[in-house]
Design goal:
Blueprint (H helix, E strand, L loop, with lengths): L13 H20 L2 E12 L8 E11 L3 E11 L6 E14 L16 H37 L10
Antiparallel strand pairs: 1-4, 2-3, 3-4
Length: 163
């Protein structure tokens, strides 16, 4: 990584690492779907160790699960001290990517067929993350509806205040 990617302490900005993760996840999603893909969500980004200026960074992505139009892509970031050869797992991220057709609408993606125990584990864990994300979305929508209903029923709401 270069000095422009880091803060004054020489640590590479987390946003730079997130950008790399997004780029590599997009490539994995395009390879799997054969379509253009966009980021719909980043469920989790763990920074386990800092990355420093001068280190070599390797970013690897794997499609963990595929649903109707979306895919979860797991990304692993490693840094290498090129003088010593020491490699560290520095970050992990999980991104949801959506395949798009030529008009920019979500489009079907091929199913993923996990074969190995590791692939099956990643697919199960991806489904758990998806279920949590969907449940959270429903919870937020319910809170918004309750807030809108409370606002509509409050004194003065929707009236001019005159008699």
């Amino acid at each position: 990584m270069a000095p422009g990617d880091a803060n004054v302490a020489g640590n590479v900005h987390g946003g730079v690492i997130m950008h790399l993760c997004d780029e590599v996840a997009g490539i994995a999603a395009v390879r799997h779907s054969g379509r253009r893909a966009v980021t719909a969500a980043m469920d989790r980004m763990n920074f386990l160790h800092p990355v420093y200026v001068g280190q070599l960074v390797t970013v690897k992505a794997t499609v963990n699960a595929a649903w109707r139009t979306s895919m979860e892509v797991g990304v692993r970031v490693e840094s290498e001290d090129i003088r010593t050869g020491r490699v560290m797992h520095t970050s992990t991220a999980y991104l949801t990517m959506v395949a798009l057709d030529d008009e920019g609408n979500p489009t079907a993606v091929p199913p993923l067929r996990p074969d190995t125990p590791a692939e099956k584990r990643r697919a199960r864990e991806a489904q758990v993350r998806r279920d949590h994300r969907l449940a959270e979305r429903k919870r937020i929508e319910a809170v918004r509806r309750e807030g809108a209903q409370a606002q509509a029923g409050s004194p003065g709401a929707g009236s001019s205040g005159g008699s």
